[in-house]
Amino acid sequence: MREGVWRIDLELARDSVTGRRRRVSRTVEGTRAEAEVALARLKVADHEKRLPSGGTKARSVAAAFEAYEQAVEAGLIQLAPSTAVTVRSAHRVMASVELPDGRKFGAVRLSQLNWQDVERLYAAMREAGRGSAWIRRCATVLSRSLDLARKRGLIDANPCRDATRPRTVRTKPFAPGTVDMKRLIGQVAKGDPELADIVTVLASTGMRRGELLALRWVDVDLGAEEINVAAAISDGGPGVGILRMATKTADWRDIPLTGSALAALRRQQERRVDLVGDEPRSHYVFPGDIDGSVPMRPDALTVRWAQHRGGSPINLQHLRHFAATVMLDAGWSYRTVADLLGNSEATLRLHYDGRSDVGKRKAIAALDF
User: Fold this and answer.
1) How far apart are CA 256 and CA 262, in angstroms?
2) All domains of the chain, ordered by start, with CATH?
3) How far is the C-alpha of 10 from the C-alpha of 198, rounded, in Å?
4) pLDDT > 50? residue 56
């Protein structure tokens, strides 16, 4: 077309209904070799039947974002409500980023989008002060959005595959010690006994905050001394509200109860009996209302904990770190701990592999002289 700009055309099979000839075109910026590669990708997309019957019209990145959000709203893509909120936020942030050449990333045509543009997006976000963790989260959202666009024939290949994501600096997760945990729970129990029992169950099982709030009496077997975790409470934000849905891994797991956790649940059962008498087993163990049929809001529990922990740095996420660290330091395998926490073994290793476990202590002891 002009220096450094090529148009590639691909003749498709005739329309099976009208018999009309079909053709799809792309505009490519770069060398002739890059145009030939784009043509090859277009042929592959046609072979895999990823091109819509009318050919692919040039659309923007923002259009791909909108298509992804519509798929989520229609239930074609299942996301936790909180994740859907993150997706919308990431889309909004990325679409508004200005690239070095002055283009808004959301206005970039999909037919012209390449891995260099994606890396420029990451660089621009860094310069704007966005943290690496947030940029990597946006990168995941971008890749999934463009993957859907590729499947629908809006783009021939996902350029995120070739773009380098920013590296994150791993930091040691803060895990409180057993003595500090006991002292803090004892302190909280003086002002809010129920909250102290909530924290005891969290620290003794490694459950996520939303999983504990979704726990109903039908999920608790005090005789067998175990609980069944199969759901979580999630806040979907304005217009969605509080939902009870499958756990983060969309799976269930049984967790044995320690003596402390068992005692905490029995105390909560006594509170509920004193308050409302016998209640249906479908009611929540730690509800958000007196009746017991409504779950407690996750943010309400967080605020409640912040009000009672005083000057302690321990937050609710640290309770999960505490459970994982104590079990791993006791010599239990990553597989066992991962099963109890509802994590993948790979994720658990990513977070805790650097700690001073029992094996490392024995190994280093061999060097003592």
Assistant:
1) 9
2) 1-56 (no CATH), 58-167 (1.10.150.130), 178-359 (1.10.443.10)
3) 63
4) no
